[in-house]
TrEMBL record:
Species for this entry: Ferrimonas gelatinilytica
Domain PTS EIIA type-1 residues, every copy: 39-143
Main location: cytoplasm
Bilayer-spanning residue ranges: none
Protein name from the UniProt record: PTS system glucose-specific EIIA component
């Protein structure tokens, strides 16, 4: 979404732009630099910039309020768009699409409105540890052209509670 369409949406909804959008951890675990993800699509920021998380737990939660744009058939990844036009992409693990959905269960649907912290996917961590190339879970901003600045957090995170990124559009 470009600047003008985002501005039209702000005016139409009588929203005021905020200083920034806090993005919460979609999974619990430890933040890892996006450059350390063992997939060039993420490490070279081809699909956008962000962070990755070495996951724990059993659920992937919505990192922001928004609308689920795409929930992939293999239930390993989804996109989310905020009311102000921030476009996020969450991808659980590397090469997990090749599992054809095994190890994942869908808890939400495409087009669904969600609040930060709402469950989107459930995963079987033990199964995925055994079958996935990597469990590192990238969380990337897909529309970096609309981002004025981004602050990346570090350390251990709790899904739905800990901020991982702050983005100014």
């Amino acid at each position: 979404m470009g600047f003008l369409s985002r501005l039209r949406r702000i005016v139409a909804n009588r929203e005021t732009p905020v200083d920034g959008v806090d993005i919460l951890a979609p999974v619990s675990g430890r933040i890892v630099a996006i450059e350390d993800v063992p997939d060039v699509v993420f490490s070279e920021k081809i699909v956008g910039d962000g962070i990755a998380i070495d996951p724990q737990g059993s659920q992937v939660l919505a990192p922001i309020d928004g609308t689920i744009g795409r929930l992939f058939d293999a239930n390993h990844a989804f996109s989310l768009e905020s009311p102000l036009g921030l476009e996020l992409f969450v991808h659980f693990g590397i090469d997990t699409v090749e599992l054809g959905g095994a190890g994942f269960r869908r808890l939400a649907q495409e087009g669904q409105q969600v609040k930060a912290g709402d469950p989107i996917l459930e995963f079987d961590l033990d199964y995925l540890k055994e079958h996935a190339k990597s469990l590192l879970t990238p969380v990337v901003i897909a529309n970096m052209e609309d981002v004025a600045s981004m602050e990346k957090d570090e350390g251990e995170v709790i899904a739905g509670q800990t901020r991982i990124l702050r983005v100014e559009l």
